[in-house]
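Marked as duplicate of an earlier ticket. Keeping the data here for the record.
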Amino acid sequence: MTAPNLLVELFVEELPPKALQKLGDAFAGVLHEQLAAQGLAGAGSRVTAYASPRRLAAHVTQVLAAAPDKAVSQKLMPVAVGLDAQGQATPALLKKLAALGLDAAALGGLKRVNDGKAEVLFHESMARGATLAEGLQKALDEAIAKLPIPKVMRYQLQDGWSSVHFVRPAHGLVALHGSEVVTGVQALGLTAGRETHGHRFEAQAESIALRDADSYAQQLREEGAVIASFAERRAEIARQLAAAAAQVGGGVRPIEDDALLDEVTALVERPNVLVCAFEEEFLAVPQECLILTMKANQKYFPLLDGQGRLTHRFLVVSNISPQDPTAVIQGNERVVRPRLADAKFFFDQDRKKPLASRVEQLAKVVYHNKLGTQGERVERVRHIAKAIAAQLFDALAGQHAEQLDSDSGELAREYLLTCVDNAALLAKADLVTDMVGEFPELQGVMGSYYAVGDGLPDEVAHAIEDHYKPRFAGDELPRENVGLVVALADKLETLVGMFGIGNLPTGDRDPFALRRHALGVIRMLIEKQQPLDIRALVSSAVRAFDEKLLDGDGDNYLVALYAFFNDRLSGYLRETGASIQEVTAVINSDLSWKDMPKALEAVRAFATLAEAPALAAANKRVANILKKAEAEGAVDPHVNEELLQEQAEQDLYAALQRFVPEADAQFDRGDYTASLQTLAVLRAPVDAFFDDVMVNTDDLAVRLNRQGLLKRLHQAMNRVADLSRLAV
């Protein structure tokens, strides 16, 4: 016979919307987990979470009225300690039995078991299974205690004396096992029953008497005008949004924003989507401003046209469904108008002053008490950006030297440096505008608009917006080289500055987003295929700082910074599915970061070859030999053929002469996979060398020559990656 299902609900005042889904999932998950741990819910039991603005609930299938009794075997003590020579209980054993509520009469029922070391006494008994009332009380207490509550509040109970701590005041508790109330269960000063409440305004009656656990969702929907399931409510809102947009026509669509959809789902119990509009004159304001104020302040869904441009219509998710929604629509239109008017006012006021005139105000804005003001920071970013721009231009010019004459090259260089300097100078200027003061999320975006209004080149305007990118995982990268250079400079200034004063991220704390900045640098260099060296970039950033601002440990903070970069780089490369050994092998090469993903593909292909394990082990052995040899002095990779005495070393030298030039040519073409596979043929001569040749012979000239041969082998084999890292 199938056990009845269980329904538990906490009816509360409006819960914090941004936390609602997590609260609902945690409440149901812990409750089910605790019931299962007590044997009240078996392996086939399933839990369904419900969460609405005023309730947290869980429906658990196949819950027993009482858990089965369980055999318990308790280890007491070694026989030698518990029994005397006559086999009678010692005082130690009698004390142990008394602690279990037993006496000497239980001696005959004890079992002797050899645990591999000695005979041990065990007491076996049957533990009574918990009743549902007992088990549910424990599970409910645990579920409430483990709720991920963002901020706990304390409130007084109806008795006027007691108080409890919870996310919001609770006013009802339901516990139904099938159609029966689980009596005796209490929480937050409430006793379990079967009554709950529906929609605050649209329920058929003030309270709803639930028939049984399985009718919960249906009764709430039909009698209470509430969609209890968070997922169902979210899907219904998405459906209505799409339908309302289709009704407007013209190819419009609601803005896609999962966080907004989740928040609105947590604000309504029975959604009703309505179409509203505002005056078209507001569309003269940058759409980012209007969209942000509608989303952040009003929780509206702006409608975009087919080109992604904002229209003057928007969607409201109402929590009521009147026969005539005119008053609701007009009320929302009336509410949004002052918000849009404010945005227009800020935009108009900001445009009265050129962006460059605001730079001086940054000298009054503190960035960090050890690193100075935003004005000082801007000067550092300018210094770093100009150095990076010069490095980038020189690298790119070297790649395309045949396409540039001296005059055109100098003009292009000067234009890049000028644009970069202007963008770096103005990048933070919008921080002191009215619009960004009201909406900090628009920093960079508004600066870009104001730069266009001031007649600055598109590259400069784009860079002002793009220098914050990537702002989060998966975000797009800067569009052009000017923006990329300023973005690199901005992030490197932050990283070097914070590491320099010892302000490193710890655990989950990373207030200056240093992990995100480091990953941003990595993504820009790799995904934009930038021919820039990370150490040269960091050196440029270090030179921009006054030495007294950095720690007194010499360059120790740079060691920590490079290790920090390597950790982030390792994580980035491992997202391809590569092993930690493969990633470490690539990171420990001398390759530019932009080439590492391709090198990683080559290493992964090499690792599948039959020759790979032996060559990796040989590389590790070679590295150890050279490390010891180089402790006494540099090893010369040149080889004197006349000193090659053994056939195995002659064969290895011949193989190097034959195959290394081909592998080097493939490497220089960027075909790392082919380069490593060409070198795989060295396995046989390398194995023979180590089988037949003693490197550290007494003859100094021969020993140095053999070390040189190994040095040459090591250089050839490890251009793509440090293959010794692949050795098991």
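See parent ticket for discussion. The chain has a mean pLDDT of 91.
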